[in-house]
Write a sequence for this structure.
C-alpha cells in the first residue's frame, strides 16, 4: 500500500500512484522494517530534479521493479527540501562510501536507519541486480551488514567538521580574494569548470570587499551569467546551473533560492556601479518571481521543473525554453525570425537542433528587440508549462523577503515591498507556532502548515528577511519577530564550540546531528545565523548577539585561504563585522518627503551590512509602525534618545551605538556614509 496520499510535499505526491509501497519518513517505516526483518530502501529527491524523474519513470513506475522493491525492502520516499536534516546525514554517508553525491539519492539501511550501502541514480537493469544483491547480502551476512552500518555511523559521528579560528580580519578577507582569484575563469567568468553554479554568496562578498580585483571578478561573472543561457532571456529568472563552462546550456530547473539570492546581488551590483544590465536583470527577475512563483497565500513556490511536454507529447528537459530557427520564423516571420536567430545565438546549442537563447550583446535596435521578445514570450506561454513545486519553504521565503524588500526600495517599486510584506505575514502567521522564543515550521502548502520542524537556516534566513523588511518599512513588528527567531537560535542550536547545529536540540534524533558550516546552494545555516545576529546586534547594541555572530564567523578564518568558494556568505558577513556594520537611525514624520529622502540615501549606501532604523520623530524614540497601524508604539534601541533637529528629519550615522553628529540632508548623509 502506497502511503503518500496524505502528504503535503508535491515531490511525494508525484509518487502517490507508483506501484511501490512507499512510506513517508517516520517511525511507521522503521517499525515495519523491524517487523518484517528487512532493510530500508530510502530514496531521497526533490520535485524539480530531472534524474529523479528519470529513475521514477524507469523503476518506480515499473511493475516488476516495484514488486521486487516491495518484496525485499521497506521503501521510504523523502523530499530533501522538507527534510534537509535527513538528506544531510544520508548524503554524508553516500559521499563517504562513493566519493560523490547527488539526487536521486538511494540508500540501503538497517531497520535502525544505519546506512550500509548507498548511491545516486541507478539505471533500471543495474537497479534490478542491486536490489537482489543487497537482499541476498542481508540474508546471508546479516552481521556484516549491521557491522558495516555501525561503522558508517561511527565514522560520520566522529567527524569534527571545520575547526573554528579567530574572527576574520582584513588580511583574512584579502587572502580569500586571492584564493578566489586562483580558481577564477577570467575568460568566461565564474569559478572552476563545468558544471558551473551561480556563486551567489561569493559575489556578495566580492562586491562588499570592493577592491578593483574583487569587483572585476564579480562583474565579469554576473555579466556572463546574465547574457548566457543560464538566464531566461524571455521571461527572466535563472536556472539552477550551467552544464558547460560557458554558461550556455542550463540545467533548466528554476529554484526559488537561486533567484532570491541573485536578485539581491544584482541589485547590489547596480547600487555599486549603476550597471544598466544589473538593473534590467534585477527587475526582470523580481517580476518573474511575482508572476510565476507567487502563491495565492502570498508566499513563493519552491521551484519550476526542468522537464515539460514537447510538441510530440513526450516529456523532456528544457522543452519549454528552447527554440529552432524554424520556430522563430513561425512566430515572427522571415525577416524578424532571422534577426532573432542572430541576436539570440540560435545555432543549435542544445539537443536535436534546438538552442537555448543567449544575449551576448545588446541589440542595435532596442524597439525591435522588445517587440520580438514580447511576441516570443507570448508564443512560449502557449507551450505546456513545466510543473511547479508550490510548497512554501520558510528559509527560501526569508531570502525572497530580504531581496524583494531591498529591490523594491532601491528601484522605488512599492509593489515589490508589498509582496515581501505579504510573504512575511504568511511566515509569521502560518509557520510560527509559538512566540518568545519563536518556533517555526519549515513548510506549508495551500495554506496548510506541514509538520516538519524548522532548521537553523529557516530561523536565520527568516530573521534576515524580517530585519531587511523592517529597514525598508520601519514596521517594528518585523524587528521584534526577528528577535524572537534569533532567541530560538541562541537557545536551541548552539554546538558548544561557537558554531551551530543545523537541527534543533529537541528535534528528531537521527544517527547524526547535522552541522555543515559551509555554503552550498544557499548560505550555510551557521553563516546565515551570523549575519542575522550581527544585524540585530547593530540595531540593539546587544553584546550577546554580536558575540554569538563573531564566534560563528570563526570558521571563515579556517576556510578563507583554501576553500573561500564555500564560505562566501561568511566572508560577506565578516566584511560587515569588520566595518561595524554601519548603523543609521532616521527620525522624522513617515510621510515627509525629507524623511523619505534621508531613508533612500541610507539604503543606497554600499556600506557592507548597513542597518537602518526608522523613527517617527515623536519623542525621538519611536518606530514608524509595528505593522498594525500603531505608529511609534514600540521602541527600537538604535532610535532611543535620537530625535529631529530643529523640527527637521535627521539621520544619525553610528558604529557600535557611538554616533556622529546628526545630519538633515541627503548630501550630508551621503558624505557621512562615505567616511
Amino acid at each position: 500500500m502506497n502511503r503518500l496520499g496524505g502528504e503535503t510535499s508535491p515531490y511525494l505526491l508525484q509518487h502517490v500512484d507508483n506501484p511501490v509501497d512507499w512510506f513517508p519518513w517516520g517511525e511507521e517505516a522503521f517499525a515495519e522494517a523491524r517487523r518484517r526483518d528487512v532493510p530500508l530502501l530510502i530514496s531521497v529527491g526533490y520535485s524539480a530534479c530531472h534524474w529523479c524523474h528519470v529513475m521514477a519513470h524507469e523503476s518506480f513506475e515499473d511493475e516488476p521493479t516495484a514488486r521486487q522493491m516491495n518484496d525485499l525492502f521497506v521503501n521510504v520516499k523523502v523530499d530533501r527540501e522538507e527534510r534537509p536534516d535527513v538528506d544531510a546525514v544520508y548524503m554524508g554517508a553516500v559521499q563517504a562510501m562513493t566519493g560523490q553525491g547527488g539526487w536521486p539519492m538511494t540508500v540501503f539501511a538497517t531497520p535502525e536507519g544505519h546506512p550500509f550501502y548507498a548511491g545516486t541514480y541507478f539505471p533500471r537493469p543495474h537497479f534490478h541486480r542491486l536490489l537482489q544483491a543487497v537482499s541476498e547480502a542481508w540474508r546471508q551476512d546479516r552481521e556484516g551488514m549491521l557491522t558495516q552500518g555501525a561503522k558508517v555511523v561511527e565514522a560520520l559521528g566522529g567527524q569534527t567538521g571545520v575547526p573554528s579560528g579567530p574572527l576574520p580580519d582584513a588580511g583574512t578577507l584579502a587572502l580569500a580574494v586571492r584564493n578566489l582569484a586562483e580558481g577564477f575563469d577570467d575568460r568566461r567568468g565564474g569559478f572552476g569548470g563545468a558544471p558551473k553554479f551561480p556563486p551567489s554568496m561569493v559575489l556578495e562578498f566580492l562586491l562588499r570587499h570592493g577592491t578593483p580585483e574583487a569587483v572585476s571578478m564579480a562583474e565579469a561573472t554576473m555579466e556572463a551569467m546574465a547574457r548566457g543561457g543560464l538566464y531566461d532571456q524571455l521571461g527572466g529568472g535563472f536556472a539552477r546551473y550551467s552544464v558547460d563552462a560557458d554558461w550556455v546550456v542550463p540545467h533548466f530547473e528554476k529554484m526559488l533560492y537561486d533567484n532570491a539570492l541573485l536578485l539581491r546581488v544584482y541589485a547590489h551590483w547596480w547600487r555599486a556601479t549603476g550597471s544598466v544590465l544589473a538593473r534590467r536583470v534585477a527587475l526582470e527577475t523580481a517580476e518573474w518571481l511575482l508572476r510565476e512563483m507567487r502563491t495565492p497565500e502570498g508566499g513563493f513556490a519552491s521551484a519550476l521543473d526542468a522537464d515539460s511536454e514537447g510538441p510530440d507529447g513526450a516529456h523532456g528537459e528544457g522543452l519549454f525554453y528552447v527554440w529552432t530557427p524554424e520556430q522563430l520564423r513561425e512566430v515572427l516571420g522571415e525577416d524578424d525570425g532571422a534577426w532573432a536567430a542572430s541576436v539570440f545565438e540560435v545555432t543549435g546549442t542544445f539537443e536535436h537542433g534546438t538552442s537555448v537563447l543567449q544575449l551576448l550583446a545588446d541589440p542595435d535596435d532596442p524597439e525591435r528587440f522588445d517587440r520580438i521578445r514580447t511576441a516570443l514570450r507570448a508564443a512560449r506561454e502557449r507551450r505546456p508549462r513545466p510543473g511547479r513545486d508550490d510548497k512554501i519553504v520558510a528559509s527560501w521565503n526569508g531570502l525572497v523577503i530580504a531581496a524583494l524588500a531591498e529591490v523594491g526600495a532601491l528601484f522605488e517599486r512599492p509593489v515589490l515591498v508589498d509582496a515581501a510584506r505579504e510573504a512575511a505575514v504568511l511566515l509569521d502567521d502560518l509557520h510560527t507556532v509559538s512566540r518568545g522564543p519563536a518556533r517555526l515550521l519549515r513548510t506549508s502548502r495551500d495554506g496548510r502548515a506541514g509538520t516538519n520542524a524548522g532548521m537553523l537556516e529557516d530561523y536565520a534566513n527568516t530573521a534576515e528577511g524580517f530585519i531587511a523588511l523592517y529597514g525598508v518599512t520601519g514596521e517594528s513588528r518585523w524587528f521584534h519577530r526577528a528577535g524572537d527567531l534569533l532567541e530560538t537560535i541562541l537557545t536551541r542550536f548552539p554546538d558548544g564550540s561557537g558554531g551551530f547545529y543545523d537541527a534543533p536540540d529537541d528535534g528528531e534524533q537521527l544517527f547524526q546531528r547535522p552541522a555543515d558550516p559551509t555554503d552550498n546552494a544557499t548560505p550555510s545555516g551557521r553563516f546565515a545565523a551570523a549575519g542575522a545576529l550581527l544585524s540585530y546586534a547593530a540595531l540593539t547594541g546587544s553584546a550577546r548577539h554580536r558575540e554569538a555572530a563573531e564566534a560563528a564567523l570563526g570558521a571563515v578564518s579556517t576556510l578563507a585561504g583554501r576553500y573561500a568558494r564555500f564560505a562566501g556568505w561568511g566572508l560577506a558577513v565578516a566584511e560587515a563585522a569588520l566595518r561595524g556594520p554601519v548603523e543609521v537611525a532616521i527620525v522624522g514624520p513617515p510621510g515627509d518627503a525629507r524623511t523619505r529622502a534621508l531613508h533612500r540615501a541610507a539604503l543606497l549606501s554600499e556600506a557592507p551590512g548597513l542597518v537602518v532604523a526608522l523613527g517617527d520623530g515623536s519623542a525621538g524614540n519611536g518606530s514608524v509602525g509595528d505593522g498594525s497601524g500603531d505608529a511609534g508604539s514600540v521602541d527600537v534601541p538604535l532610535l532611543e534618545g535620537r530625535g529631529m533637529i530643529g523640527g527637521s528629519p535627521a539621520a544619525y550615522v553610528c558604529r557600535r551605538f557611538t554616533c556622529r553628529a546628526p545630519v538633515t540632508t541627503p548630501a550630508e548623509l551621503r558624505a557621512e556614509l562615505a567616511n
Q: What stands out?
A: The two ends are 68 Å apart (CA to CA). The domain at 10-157 is CATH 3.40.30.10 (Glutaredoxin). The chain has a mean pLDDT of 94. The first helix runs from residue 10 to 13.
